[in-house]
Amino acid sequence: MRPNVVALGHGYWGRNIVRNLASLEVLRGIYEPDEAMRNEAKILYPNTLFYQHEQEIWEDDKAIAVAIGTPAIHHARLALRAMAAGKDVFVEKPLALTLDEGQRMVTAAQETNRVLMVGHLLEYHPAITQLRQWIDEGILGDLQYIYSNRLNLGKFRREENILWSFAPHDLAILLRLIQQMPTEVVATGGAYLTPGVADITTTNLRFDNGIQAHIFVSWLHPYKEQKLVVVGSQKMVVFDDQAPWDQKLTLFDKGADWVDNVPIPRQGIGRSVTLLPKEPLLEELRHFIDRVGDRKPPLTDGDSGLRVLKVLHAAQYSLQQNGIPVSVHP
Fold this sequence. Notes:
single chain, alpha/beta, nine-stranded mixed beta sheet, six-stranded parallel beta sheet, 15 strands, globular
């Protein structure tokens, strides 16, 4: 039996959630308080239930889950209210805006036995799934260094900075691949459009196992780039999400070989892996629906969202203090 899901929000990203829920045939209704956005949704989904007031959602016994695609400031309140009403919750990234809110959401999910899943989209990308498999199988050797660039021109925001807007995706991937929380975070950046709202940030992360990583995000960039580079002791990998599907993921037999105690570059060839084209958001929401059905913990559960939130807060504090090193508590 397919669960009935209510979508909260039909704005910039919420409309994509609605579209995929509809394609999965689980969309029961939409709640969008903005009249223009609501009218647009009514044209696209004429046979869908539209709620006039938020309270109608909580009282709807046929709606067993909600998908929250609203601005992040509303995430915690809506998720907590939904779980109190006995509904499972999918919430877009970030999980919340404060650690206290995030912890309350995780605790509420445990106490009410509700599914709480956060939208760390790229963890459901076929390229990341393949990369995780290579790491688990030891094909890359020991991980040494990872960097991620997420760059574009716009969409500019005046409420949340680029760190909170772009970097959660990259942080989620890093924590998943490395399987550790960083011990130290250093973040620097600049605000050029709106005072106090960073347009570019570089975040450096150190881990106990010796791995280092950095994330460069910007919405002041002349072209779009979404690239992840993973360096291992045996092989290297490049994930370029702007490339065609048959070129998105490339495994390089490159590294350093020691000859007479001297490191010599090994210039091996790169092998692109053909991936089955899948929309990550569709796969993510399919995963949520499956977890609602079987009650198993989702891959990107509340604890996963809380870990990303802890690193984000450490990076934000470092950014505000002009790049001082900040310790991250597990």
